[in-house]
Give the backbone structure.
Amino acid sequence: MNARETYGTRPEYIGEILGLLGEDAVRLSYDEHREFAATSLNRFPAIGSVRLDRSVADVVDRRDTFDGATLASLLDAHAGPDELVVVFWDNLPPPSIALPAPLAARHAAAILDEGPTCWLLLTDSGTLIEFQDGEGFTTGRPPAAATARTN
């Protein structure tokens, strides 16, 4: 199966957060997912399969905690009150979702419970919050253009 055929085929992988959010979260189509990724995740070179090379980014905040309260505080600090947040997971079967920033902050713990790695794009500011379980959060702005992959 190619990426288009695989994307979004397993929404049950993020069933808890989809159940909590109901119609307040929008499941992104593959094309929408790719469009948002092009302005954020795809602008970073990769280190391994799910780690971004932050050396090319403007890092504005790092936290070595890894809980919902920390994510909520990052969203409160960096997202506007009407800002849309896109949540990307570390693989393609669960669909990316879009939701208002205040709702993402309120359900931050549930978002993190869905997997060990995720990225949250704040669509108005272009800020990207990366979560790696066991390492914490890195918040920054993606490079202006895509850079070459390191591997």
About this structure: The CA atoms of residues 8 and 95 lie 4 Å apart.
